[in-house]
Amino acid sequence: MRMSVPAIAAALLLSTAAGPAPAEAAGVADDVQATIDAMTGAFARGDVRGILATYEPGAVVVGEPGAPVAGTAALTAMFQQFVALEPQFTFMDHEVIEAGDIALHLSTWKMEGRTPDGSPVEQSGLSVAVLRRQPDGRWLMVIDDPYGDHILGR
């Protein structure tokens, strides 16, 4: 079936009209970003409980490229090691893509910190996080891979 250019344009307009209203999309992005901000703020305070509160029970976090970590005890231990660096984050940009109760958060980031002996540590990457809207309306992370761009270096 061949469609004329005006018919294709009309179909595109109708398909985009079915998406979320800009205010709704902005609201979701803001709510998702609030979860990310709560997590990074907890890192800056050294608050491991606060970090864990931004994740669903059963969440998976990539602690280093190719090494996913799950379970409260393992995540607590990993986050305790990380907060010992006293990390300070800088985010270059964010993007949120929502599909119902699931959202994908993408962000480039840079982290500066110090090892216990005072040596500087710098890391950067592309964070890829999957969040789910909770029954109370909060968004919590289900999968968090701060090294989402590591496969580009292979």
TrEMBL record:
Keyword Membrane annotated: no
Keywords, alphabetical: Signal
Signal peptide: 1-25
Cross-referenced InterPro entries: DUF4440, NTF2-like_dom_sf
Domain DUF4440: 33-141
Name of the protein: DUF4440 domain-containing protein
